[in-house]
Each structure stands twice: as C-alpha cells, then as structure tokens.
Amino acid sequence: MDNLFAERLNELLADRAITKRALAREIGVSAMSVSDWTNGRVQPTAENIYIIAKHLDVSADFLLGLDE
User: Fold this and answer.
1) Is the alpha carbon torsion for 58, 59, 63, 66 positive or negative?
2) In this structure, what CATH number is given to the domain that contains residue 45?
3) Rounded distance, CA 46 to CA 48, Å?
4) Which domain holds residue 53?
5) What does each C-alpha distance from 25 to 4, 9, 17, 67 come to in angstroms?
6) What's the predicted TM-score (pTM) here?
7) Other beta carbons within 10 Å of 41
8) What are the pLDDT digits (tens) for 20-62?
9) How many domains does the chain have?
C-alpha cells in the first residue's frame, strides 16, 4: 500500500516551494519529524495532521488520501 500522506505532503511542499525545515519551524515540530513523515517512515499524530492541514489550507481527508 502506498503512503498517500507522504506523497501528498511532498507534492504540497514542492508546489508551494516550502522546505521541510520551514514547515517544521512554522508548525512547531522538529525537522526530523517532517523528514520522517515525507519519507513515509513515521505517520504523524492526528493533532499534527490537523495542524498541517490548517497550515497548508487543505483538508485532513486530502492529506490522508480519502478525498481528491
């Protein structure tokens, strides 16, 4: 099974020219956490999914691959 969260987060960051380090700083997590999420090694908590969705102005369902 593909990790749609990692794929979609990577796409959003690339489309918006946001670095992993910048996202980490802006949402208050470590750069390693964002790196782990984008590489699919670790899934973020529900709270972090909510924060990312709000920050990037997308739905949590989109990030999780439940919605196009």
Assistant:
1) negative
2) 1.10.260.40
3) 5
4) 4-64
5) 23, 16, 15, 27
6) 0.91
7) 11
8) 999 999 999 999 999 999 999 999 999 999 999 999 999 999 9
9) 1
